[in-house]
Amino acid sequence: MTKKIFTYGFDIQNYMDEALKRLKVCHSWVTFEDFHKNWKFAIEKEGRKHVFVRYYDYENGKIEREIFEGDGEAFVKNIVWLNESYIEMNNEPASEFRLEMPGGIEDCGWYLEGYEIRKHKRGGVSATITAGNRSAGGSKTYFLPDDFFDGTFAEFLEKYNDLLPGRYIIDEEMLKMNPGLKKFLGFKK
């Protein structure tokens, strides 16, 4: 039995629709208008077979064409990957809650330096973690799926702590240091 490569058929719009559906899990406000304008996607016939194609339109007018090797599922994931950080970058924070932290939180030699929960202008909530060691550092932002906010604050924390890597979870000690977090996130109880 051969694996079906064109999971969603031969119409590129089906792949775009599936990518948008997946992006809406964490970015309910997103539309096709928010996608990166330089990336274009197609299914084209090359010789006797169909292929997935990505185009990148450079500002200088040059267009780069690349055949995507993989099946429809991988192609959808690639569309999501090529657009997600662009979408997130273009949704500026509207308000921030900077978490007070206990000292010495460390994961694999990187020490937690900053921790913010942000609400964004177009919708969505993210957590931005800044960590470093003696010679390097960086930040990582995690947009939270909308369904994290269904239910109680305790249920939110369970989902949230499953998402975050290593030691950067919100535990009881951190909650005591940040009593306003629950209200900032919109939880009543």
Quick description:
By secondary structure, this protein is of the alpha+beta class.
Structure description:
This protein has 189 residues and is of the alpha+beta class. The chain folds into two domains: 12-89, no CATH class; 93-184, no CATH class. The protein is built from five helices and eight strands. It has helices at residues 12-23, 72-89, 153-163, 172-177, 181-184, and strands spanning 39-46, 49-57, 63-68, 93-98, 106-107, 110-120, 125-132, 137-143. Strands 4, 5, 6, 7 and 8 form a five-stranded antiparallel beta sheet that branches. Strands 1-2-3 form a three-stranded antiparallel beta sheet, with helices on one face. Helix 1 packs across helix 2 (72-89). The termini are far apart. The mean pLDDT is 91.
Q: In the residues, how many domains can be counted?
A: 2
Secondary-structure-based class equals: alpha+beta
Distance between the termini: 53 Å
Radius of gyration: 20 Å
- The mean pLDDT is 91
The percentage helix is 25-40%
Largest sheet: 5 strands, antiparallel
What is the assembly state of the chains in this entry? Answer: single chain
Strand segment tally:
8
Counting H and I runs of at least 4 residues, what is the number of helices?
5
Instruction: Encode the helix/strand succession as letters.
Output: HEEEHEEEEEHHH
Shape: elongated
In percent, how much strand structure appears in the residues? Answer: 25-35%
| Poorly predicted residue ranges | none
